[in-house]
Amino acid sequence: MNAQKLSKRLETVASFVPTGAVVADIGSDHAYLPCYLVHNGIVAKAIAGEVVKGPFESALKQVKLEGMEEQITVRLADGLKAVEKRDGVDTITIAGMGGPLIVSILEKDPEALNSVTRLILQPNIHARVIREWAMKNHWAVLDEMILKEDEKIYEILVLQRGEMELSEQEILLGKHLMANKSEVFVEKWSKEIENWKRILTSIERADATSDIDKKREEVTHLIKLVEEAL
Ligand code: SAM
């Protein structure tokens, strides 16, 4: 992967960036995504934010290598602190982290989202937490994708301002993904069911306690929710 040839995962994230957007990519590592967006004329201006010094320096180096210092500002900052009011950022991408970390970044500096109209989020795990956050914070899912790359399955959520009501099943699985029921979607959730069934089997062998009973109920409920959707 490099700034010209992204991974399928980041290329899909990029495909949801509107032409002419002002983007902040939070947790930008090598700044591949902002460089790709500028290189392909999708955006003219971007921010690459990184909280760790090593990846921040890699991002700086990459932007310099591409000769994109005029278009891409790299900032060493925690989460949305990389976004300044004067930037006029309207689109934020956060990819390659867990859903809970993505949500904690969004919750920490909510004022940085004032000018933002689109969030493109790619949680490696627990996308559910993002859907819950979106529903409570006046964001609606515009689109969702699920894809497989190098034997790993990724979900991408595209949010815009708005209200939505999701059922428990839709929060877990994604309304759009449920409607499409792609091969990758079925694979992901079939594996989860297998996993939960293994947990149930191991619980059967454990001594009955209220915690064990609670866990059994939880897991049985999840299996039922997902089986109904497949
Ligand atoms: N976004 C790239 C991608 O999807 O390929 C890099 C993903 S990498 C696994 C996650 C990056 O997010 C790391 O470089 C990490 O330092 C950075 N990160 C984690 N928490 C962060 C935060 N609060 N603010 C900014 N960057 C963060």
Report on this structure.
The protein has 230 residues and is of the alpha/beta class. It folds into two domains: 8-165, 3-Layer(aba) Sandwich (Rossmann fold); 186-229. Helices cover 45% and strands 22% of the residues. The chain is built from nine helices and seven strands. It has helices spanning 8-15, 32-39, 53-65, 99-108, 127-136, 168-173, 175-180, 183-205, 210-229; strands at residues 22-26, 45-50, 72-76, 91-97, 118-123, 139-149, 152-161. Strands 3-2-1-4-5-7-6 form a seven-stranded mixed beta sheet, with helices on both faces. α4 links the parallel β4 (91-97) and β5 (118-123). The mean pLDDT is 96. The chain binds S-adenosylmethionine.
